[in-house]
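Researcher: Next entry in the queue.
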Amino acid sequence: MGYTITTAIDYITDRIGKDSASIGAVKKLDVDRILLMEIVTLLQQCYCGTREPASPVQGQIWYDSSVGYHKKYSGSAWSALASAAGISDILEDTSPQLGGFLDLNEFSIRHNPAPTTDHTYNGGDETATAGENLVIGDVCYLKSDGKYWKADADSVTTTAGVIRMASTTIAADADGIFIIPGDGCYVRDDTWNWATIGAELYISVTPGNPTTTAPSGDADVRRIIGHVITADIIEFKVSESYVVLEV
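Model: Structure for this entry, 247 residues:
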């Protein structure tokens, strides 16, 4: 049913309950205004509030007033879009990327020498293929087949070249994450029990094992791969040079 307004409406005098010729129109307008306000309220809740909107659509943007920044909906989850001052914590972005050079603005990257959880590390890593079964902490060399095998100080071939460390258990011929040595690379393994803080670490004659005991046999290779930081944390920083022993 439609309504036709035949007289001018004064919203102060022409209200529901007043004896007016336009009473029907006023009632209809009041109902429309109530519905409109409900719609506006729902829209406001979809764009701003303390609770995520129900039934969001991909690409929807919503302001989370409980944390003070906008979020976007990917189709499966909400994530931070930006705040007025930009993203306040890089932890909000699980896959950040640079669009250009990173200018440190006269600041430095601060390394954390104390991973707080067993079998974790701070530093760079890469995905590569294991040549044999590996476990976390195995020191590995890159073989000519393009795979990583346990480093062994009994031979230059298995000691020199590219060195990495397995970050977890990796099966032979499977891809896994390998830790890249370098400045700021710290690895924790609570099964380690290093006795001397600051001691040099070497590739061992026991394949894969880092050791504080320098190889001493004839034709053994001494190559430093880091230093002891605590009883269960090492700095993984491989020397480019090595020495072949003649005894």
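Model: The chain has a mean pLDDT of 84.
Researcher: Noted, moving on.
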